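Journal club side-thread
Mid-discussion, someone asked how the predicted structure for our own chain would compare to the paper's figures. Pasting it here so we can look after the session.
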Amino acid sequence: MAIGGPILTALFLTLRVQNKPALLWLRVLYVAGGVVAAMATSDTVKAAARVVTGVSSLACFGVSLAICAGLVAPEVRGRAALIGLGGLMLATVLGMPAATVIKQTFGWRASFWCFAVLAALCTLMVTCR
Protein backbone atom coordinates (compact mmCIF):
# COMPACT_ATOMS: atom_id res chain seq x y z
CA MET A 1 0.00 0.00 0.00
CA ALA A 2 2.69 2.47 1.03
CA ILE A 3 4.70 2.12 -2.18
CA GLY A 4 2.27 1.05 -4.88
CA GLY A 5 -0.67 3.25 -3.91
CA PRO A 6 1.12 6.58 -4.42
CA ILE A 7 2.68 5.30 -7.65
CA LEU A 8 -0.75 4.28 -9.02
CA THR A 9 -2.24 7.61 -7.91
CA ALA A 10 0.60 9.49 -9.65
CA LEU A 11 0.01 7.43 -12.79
CA PHE A 12 -3.67 8.42 -12.87
CA LEU A 13 -2.70 12.07 -12.32
CA THR A 14 -0.07 11.92 -15.06
CA LEU A 15 -2.54 10.39 -17.51
CA ARG A 16 -5.11 13.01 -16.43
CA VAL A 17 -7.77 10.39 -15.74
CA GLN A 18 -10.94 12.00 -14.40
CA ASN A 19 -11.90 11.12 -10.81
CA LYS A 20 -14.95 8.92 -11.48
CA PRO A 21 -13.30 6.73 -14.14
CA ALA A 22 -10.20 6.47 -11.92
CA LEU A 23 -12.36 5.40 -8.99
CA LEU A 24 -14.16 2.83 -11.13
CA TRP A 25 -10.91 1.35 -12.46
CA LEU A 26 -9.47 1.17 -8.95
CA ARG A 27 -12.63 -0.53 -7.67
CA VAL A 28 -12.53 -3.06 -10.52
CA LEU A 29 -8.87 -3.74 -9.75
CA TYR A 30 -9.73 -4.22 -6.07
CA VAL A 31 -12.57 -6.64 -6.88
CA ALA A 32 -10.33 -8.58 -9.27
CA GLY A 33 -7.65 -8.86 -6.60
CA GLY A 34 -10.24 -10.07 -4.08
CA VAL A 35 -11.56 -12.72 -6.47
CA VAL A 36 -8.04 -13.94 -7.28
CA ALA A 37 -7.25 -14.10 -3.55
CA ALA A 38 -10.43 -16.09 -2.88
CA MET A 39 -9.56 -18.58 -5.63
CA ALA A 40 -5.82 -18.73 -4.88
CA THR A 41 -4.28 -22.17 -4.86
CA SER A 42 -1.00 -21.05 -3.31
CA ASP A 43 0.21 -18.54 -0.78
CA THR A 44 2.23 -16.79 -3.50
CA VAL A 45 -0.87 -16.14 -5.62
CA LYS A 46 -2.82 -15.05 -2.55
CA ALA A 47 -0.03 -12.66 -1.51
CA ALA A 48 0.17 -11.18 -5.01
CA ALA A 49 -3.60 -10.67 -5.04
CA ARG A 50 -3.41 -8.96 -1.66
CA VAL A 51 -0.75 -6.60 -3.04
CA VAL A 52 -3.15 -5.71 -5.86
CA THR A 53 -5.98 -5.02 -3.41
CA GLY A 54 -3.68 -3.00 -1.15
CA VAL A 55 -2.32 -0.83 -3.94
CA SER A 56 -5.76 -0.21 -5.44
CA SER A 57 -7.35 0.54 -2.08
CA LEU A 58 -4.77 3.17 -1.11
CA ALA A 59 -5.05 4.89 -4.49
CA CYS A 60 -8.83 4.73 -4.07
CA PHE A 61 -8.58 6.70 -0.81
CA GLY A 62 -6.88 9.60 -2.57
CA VAL A 63 -9.36 9.64 -5.44
CA SER A 64 -12.27 9.41 -3.01
CA LEU A 65 -10.99 12.40 -1.04
CA ALA A 66 -10.65 14.38 -4.26
CA ILE A 67 -14.24 13.50 -5.15
CA CYS A 68 -15.41 14.53 -1.66
CA ALA A 69 -13.66 17.87 -2.04
CA GLY A 70 -15.23 18.42 -5.45
CA LEU A 71 -18.76 17.77 -4.23
CA VAL A 72 -18.89 20.48 -1.59
CA ALA A 73 -18.22 24.19 -1.20
CA PRO A 74 -14.62 25.17 -0.44
CA GLU A 75 -15.43 26.23 3.11
CA VAL A 76 -16.63 22.72 4.08
CA ARG A 77 -14.02 20.61 2.25
CA GLY A 78 -12.30 19.78 5.53
CA ARG A 79 -15.55 18.44 6.95
CA ALA A 80 -16.17 16.40 3.78
CA ALA A 81 -12.67 14.91 4.03
CA LEU A 82 -13.27 14.14 7.70
CA ILE A 83 -16.49 12.30 6.88
CA GLY A 84 -14.74 10.35 4.11
CA LEU A 85 -11.85 9.39 6.36
CA GLY A 86 -14.32 8.57 9.14
CA GLY A 87 -15.89 6.04 6.79
CA LEU A 88 -12.46 4.54 6.15
CA MET A 89 -11.82 4.20 9.89
CA LEU A 90 -15.25 2.70 10.47
CA ALA A 91 -14.67 0.20 7.67
CA THR A 92 -11.37 -0.80 9.23
CA VAL A 93 -12.81 -1.15 12.74
CA LEU A 94 -15.77 -3.22 11.53
CA GLY A 95 -14.12 -5.01 8.61
CA MET A 96 -11.28 -6.70 10.45
CA PRO A 97 -13.46 -8.35 13.12
CA ALA A 98 -16.05 -9.28 10.48
CA ALA A 99 -13.38 -10.92 8.32
CA THR A 100 -12.09 -12.81 11.36
CA VAL A 101 -15.55 -14.11 12.28
CA ILE A 102 -16.27 -15.13 8.69
CA LYS A 103 -12.87 -16.82 8.41
CA GLN A 104 -13.31 -18.75 11.66
CA THR A 105 -16.86 -19.77 10.78
CA PHE A 106 -16.65 -20.51 7.05
CA GLY A 107 -12.95 -20.54 6.16
CA TRP A 108 -10.53 -17.96 4.78
CA ARG A 109 -11.88 -18.14 1.23
CA ALA A 110 -15.33 -17.09 2.42
CA SER A 111 -13.96 -13.89 3.95
CA PHE A 112 -12.27 -12.97 0.67
CA TRP A 113 -15.45 -13.77 -1.28
CA CYS A 114 -17.59 -11.66 1.07
CA PHE A 115 -15.38 -8.61 0.71
CA ALA A 116 -15.06 -9.09 -3.06
CA VAL A 117 -18.86 -9.18 -3.35
CA LEU A 118 -19.25 -6.11 -1.13
CA ALA A 119 -16.62 -4.28 -3.17
CA ALA A 120 -18.39 -5.28 -6.39
CA LEU A 121 -21.67 -3.90 -5.03
CA CYS A 122 -19.95 -0.63 -4.11
CA THR A 123 -18.46 -0.47 -7.59
CA LEU A 124 -21.89 -0.98 -9.09
CA MET A 125 -23.28 1.86 -6.95
CA VAL A 126 -20.52 4.19 -8.13
CA THR A 127 -21.24 3.17 -11.73
CA CYS A 128 -24.94 3.92 -11.36
CA ARG A 129 -24.40 7.33 -9.75
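Post-session note: Residues 38 and 109 are 5 Å apart (CA to CA).
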